[in-house]
Amino acid sequence: MHDWLAEKRAKCEMRFESIPFAESKEWIIEGDKFRHKTGAFFSVEGVRARAACPSLDGVCQPIINQPEVGILGFVLMPDAGSHRWLVQAKAEPGNVGGVQLAPTVQATHSNYTRKHGGAPTLYLDFFVSQQYEPTSDSLQSEQGTRFLRKFNRNATVVVNEQVDVANAHFCWLTAADMRTALQTSFAINTDARSVMVSAPWRFLADTTQPFDNACASEMGLSASYKRQVRGDIVDRVKACLEAMRRDAALEVSPESLSRLTGWRVDADSISPHSKDMSPLTVRHYSVWAPEREKAEWDQPLVLSSSPDSVQLLAQEREGVLHFLLRPAYEVGLTGGVEFGPSFKLENAAGQPDWLDGLCADGHLETLIEVDQSDEGGRFMQACSRYAVCRLATAVPVPEDPGNLWVTLGELEALCQTPKLLTNEARSVISLLLAFA
Predict the structure, then answer these.
(1) Mind listing the pLDDT tens digit for each residue in 209-241?
(2) How many Å apart are CA 150 and CA 194, to the nearest integer?
């Protein structure tokens, strides 16, 4: 895996540079939004939020509005009791390293319907033809701090036929290769992580039983996965989210970029007056990437002023390892909230003070961590440190109505259900699949 990815990066000819908005050949900035001339793809718009939830009320920011649903899909093939995964080495301007491992198909609706005028999307038929039955298929949310109610279809298709590699940018990898990629910084992109974690986890194991190995057993993952899943866990989480959404009473209104309070639109950026107000900046980029369906284009990308930190906390409770999920209140999520990771630095203003202290006072044992650049097709090297950390059993965790403690088996059930867990929650949970 490492050698193949290194080779693709060495041969990648992608180049990009920041340009003034006025030099764009494809986009126009108007008073209310920044959009593609065709009206396709996505737009950057201003929004203003009103809510009963303090962390959402008054939020005013630019956001990516991409209402179309894209396809994120892996083609798999049985392989001696395990599975092989057909991966794509995808070059995107916002990726650290340029090229990262991506799903077999990673395409917006505008792209796979060829609104860009480029080449057809390879392997698309596996996900749009009735000839193939998806093994997993769910709508999952994108980053709610940067996208407005954006969902993508996450799907896997297992085929028993021989599927040829279309070109040098695709490769069949073993489950062991994929587990290695999951624990390697900047190796596998956000979209791939999301599809993998929302698919049956047995596809990442070398046997039909995930976490049936000595390492997982020693870490407590085997017992946590084998513990009987509460039959009502998905319904309970759905009910919790419905109640939190009612209580949040979020209303999101469009706001002209030129009149967005606290923001300025300059010749080459949309940026906050103060970085303390928001870490986001929008710039425009000219991209040349001969590896892609269309070799040359320009587009806006969202920059972050500092790296983020995302943690999933684990603790033995009643003799079994459990994982802590917390409500994530974000303006771009449906109803303003989904269950997120235990801790997300960028969302600290909406998290209880005790959580900040718990994550910072030395009580944590890091089980696995990676650095990742999120969503390289929309964000410019937006880096996050993702970590799963274990709390000693003796460390007290305050009883909080927002706490959701679940076993590893229950995490799988939640990941496979649409619209429950944030993108960051799915990404940090995917680290655990490295031990499947």
Answers:
(1) 999 999 999 999 999 999 999 999 999 999 999
(2) 14
Q: Does 114 have pLDDT greater than 80?
A: no
Q: Is the pTM of this model over 0.90?
A: yes
Instruction: Specify the CATH architecture of the domain 224-250+306-435.
Output: Alpha-Beta Complex (3.90)
* pLDDT higher than 70, residue 300: yes
Predicted pLDDT at 116: 66
299, 376 in Cβ contact below 8 A?
no
% of the chain residues with pLDDT over 70? 99
What pLDDT, on a 0 to 100 scale, did the predictor assign at position 120? 87
CA 202 to chain centre: 21
What pLDDT, on a 0 to 100 scale, did the predictor assign at position 359? 83
Q: Is there a contact between 282 and 34 (Cβ–Cβ < 8 Å)?
A: yes
